[in-house]
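Complex record, two chains
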Amino acid sequence: MATFKDFRNKVKPNWCPGCGDFSVLAAMQRAFASQGLEPEDVVLVSGIGCSGRISGYMNAYGFHGIHGRALPIAQGLKLANRDLTVVAAGGDGDGFAIGMNHTIHAIRRNVDITYIVMDNQVYGLTKGQTSPRSEMGFKTNSTPKGSIESALAPLEMAISAGAGFVAQGFSSDLKQLTRLIEEGLKHKGFSLINVYSPCVTYNKINTYDWFKEHLVNLDQEESYDPSNRMMAMQKLMETEGLVTGLIYQNKERPSYEELIPGFRESGLAKQDLRLEREKFDQLVAEFS
Amino acid sequence: MIKQLSWKVGGQQGEGIDSTGEIFSTALNRLGYYLYGYRHFSSRIKGGHSNTKIRISTRPIRSVSDDLDILVAFDQETIDLNAHELHADGVVLADSKFNPVLPEGIQARLFSIPFTGIAQDVGLAQMKNMVAVGASSALLGLPLEAFHSVIEGKFARKGEQVVEKNMQAIREGADRIQQECGGPLERLLLEESDRKKRLYMIGNDAIALGAIAAGARLMAAYPITPSSEIMEYLIKRLPEFGGTVVQTEDEIAAISMVIGANFGGVRALTASAGPGLSLMTEAIGLSGMTETPAVIVDTQRGGPSTGLPTKQEQSDINAMIYSTHGEIPKIVIAPSTVEECFYDTIQAFNLADRYQCPVILLSDLALSLGKQTVEPLDYNRIHIDRGKLVTDGEGLKELENSELFKRYEVTEEGVSPRVLPGVKNGLHHVTGVEHDETGRPSEQALNRKKMMEKRLRKLGQGIEFQDPVHIHARHAEPDLLIVGINSTRGVIQEGMERLEENGVKVNHLHIRQLLPFPTDQVKPLVDRAKKVVVVENNATGQLANLIKLHVGMGEKISHILKYDGNPFLPSEIYNQCKEMLVHGHV
C-alpha cells in the first residue's frame, strides 16, 4: 500500500520559501495515501499560477492546463473514466476570476471530483496584482490606491449554487486540512475545499499571524451541524468567511454520473468502441 | 415527363413549414427520387418568413435549383418574396384564406385553395400543411399511399386517429386540386424513379452518426446554429452506448472537457460554429501542446461576430487554419457531401488519435442543414485506429525512483507513445507549458528546440487522409479549373456541365484537406489549367489565397465570391465562369 512518500516526486517546487502551498501539497499526499490510493489511481488537474504548478509536484498522473479551465478538464476526465480519483487544484484567481463560470457550473453539475483552491487573496505569479478575493482597500501593483471592488465570498456563493460539500482549511493546520481533503475525496459529488494559503511575498496583510488571530475553527464548536444549510450560511456571514472546518455537506444529493441515463458503472475509457453491424443497421434505417 | 422539378413551401416561421417540407420530401425519398432540400430561416423562433425549397430529381443532385416549379404559400409574403423564382408555366398553390394575388409580371398559374378551411373540416386547422402536401402530390401524380408510412412515423405515438386524420387531409387536398384541373398537370409529371432505397439526411446527422461509429462516447457542447443537431442527435443516441452529452456553460468548457475526456482515453468531440470556435482557440492550442487528441466540428455560418446566424458562408477557413497563438500541429479537413460528413468524422477521430493533435472538421451551413438523398453508408468502411495508445501496463518498463513515463519521448515521426491515466508504470504529467520528454516544465533552449521540432514533425510528411482532394478532371489542358470547398461541390458540378455543353473544357477540384495543405495533389491541376477560378462563400477569397500561398501561380487564379448569405445557384457559376473566360474577370 502506498504511503504519502510515494506521492512525492523529485521536482523542487518553485514556490517561495514559506508559501502556504507546500502544506496543501503535503495534505493532499497524506490524504491520498490514507484513502488507500496508489499514484496511478489519481489524476491532479491544475490551472495556471503559482498554485497551478502543484500537478507537477505530485507523484501521480497530472494535467497542467490553461488559466481557469482546470474544472472542465477535470470533469471531462472523470466522465471518461469514473474509476479514477480526479482532483482539481488552483488559485483564487484561477477559480474565482477567470474560471468563476466553470466553478459555479461544476457545483451545479456535481461531477464526483474534489476541487482545492489555494486562496492567497493576491496574484502571485504575475507579481502582485489584486484578486477577486482581495479585501476592499487592499493595495497592490494594480490597485495602488487600494482596491475599490469588494471581495468575493466564494463559499456562500457555492452553497447558494447548490454545493454538496463545502469546507475551508488553513495552511498552518496540516492535520485539519488533511482531514478535510479526505472527507472531500470520500464525498460522492463535487466537493469544494478553499484553503487560506498565504502568499508571503505579495500579501503583507493576510499573513499566517493575521489568520491565526482571525480564523474560527468549527472543529471546536460542538453544536455546529454541517448538514444544516442555514447554519452554514449564517456562520459564513457571521465570520465574514474566516472560518475553518467542514462547513456544509449534503450527503443525499446524487452525483452527476449517477443521474446520467445509461451511463456505464465502470470507466468508459476501458470499454469497447466498436459499433455492432446490427446496431449500425438500426441507426441508419431511421434515415430511410 | 420531366427529370426534375423544384418545389417550395413558405410561410411564417413556427407555422410548420419545416415539417411540411419534411413529410413531402421523405415520401419522395421513399419513392426512390433524389432530393436536395434547403431551409431559409431567420434567427428567431416564431414569425418572419421562412421557406423550404426542395429539388426532386431522377438523378443525383447536390444543390439548390435556379428556378421553381411549384410554390406553396401560406401567406402573401411568401408569394411576394418568392414568385420571381417561378417558371413562366410554374404553379402557385396558395391558401384562399388570405386572398392570394400574384405580383405583376408573374406568369405562373395560381390555384387558390382553402387549405385552412379543408383542414378545419377534417378536424384541425394545423393540418392545412397536409392539405397542401396532398394538393402538391396530386399535381405531380404521386401515389398518396406513399405518405402513409411517413405520417405513421411522425404521428403514430399520438394514436391511429391522428394518423388517419392527417391522411384524410392529404386526400382531401389531392381531391380538391383534381377538381380544379382534372388530374396531374402534364408539365409537372415526373419520370419514374429507380425505386431504390436510399437515405435522406442532413450533414449534421451524418457527423453525429459518424461519431458513434468512430466510438465517441462523450460530447460536450454549447448549443449554436447551425451545429446543434449534432448534439441533439447524440443526446438521444449516446445513452444506448453508455455515453453521454454534456451541455456545458460555454464553448470554453466544452472544448476543455473534450480535452480532459480524450486525455482520459475516451473519444470525445465538440461541435460549434464560428463564434464558438473563436472562444475555443486557446484550448485548441492546449490540445496541440499537450498532444491530446480532440475532434472539433465547425459548422460555418455567416460571420464576423454573430454575423448571419442562419445563413450560408465559408469564411472560417483562415480562422481554422491560423487561430491559436504559437505554433502547433493541427489538422483541418472539409467534407463536401453528406456521405463524407460520415466517413470524415470517423477519419477525424483516427487522425486525432494517430497524430495526437486537434482535428477540425470544417462543415458549412448548407452542408450541415441541407437535407439530401444519400447513398447507403458502408459499414465496412468503419475503421478504428487509436494510434500509439497504451491501455494497460503490459510491457511497460517499471518506473523507479519516482521517475515518469516518457510521454513526450522524442521519436523519428514525432508521435510518442501515449498511456492512459490509471495504468501502472505509465505515470506522467502533461502541461501546456514547454516541457521535457517526461512532461516536466522546462524552458531550457535546447529542450525547447527539440520538443518544438518533435511536435511539428508529426505532420511534416503530410497525413494519411483518404482523398485529400476530389478531382473531376477529364481534360489534360482545360480552359478552366473550378475549385471549391464543402457544400459547393454539387453546384460547381452543375455549372461545369453547362459550360461543357457550351464547349468549354472544364476540370473540377474540390479541396478536402486544408491543413496540412495537399500541395502535391493541387499543384499539377493548377499547372495544367489555362485559368483557375475558386468558388467560395466569402468576401475575401480565403481559399484562393490559401492556394496561392501553397502553389503560387497567382496570376491565373481568380475567384467567384458570394457572401449575401445564400448558397450559389448553378446559373451563377455558369454565368460568372463564362464572363471570366470572355473578359478575364467577373
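Note: The CA atoms of residues 55 and 62 of chain A lie 5 Å apart.
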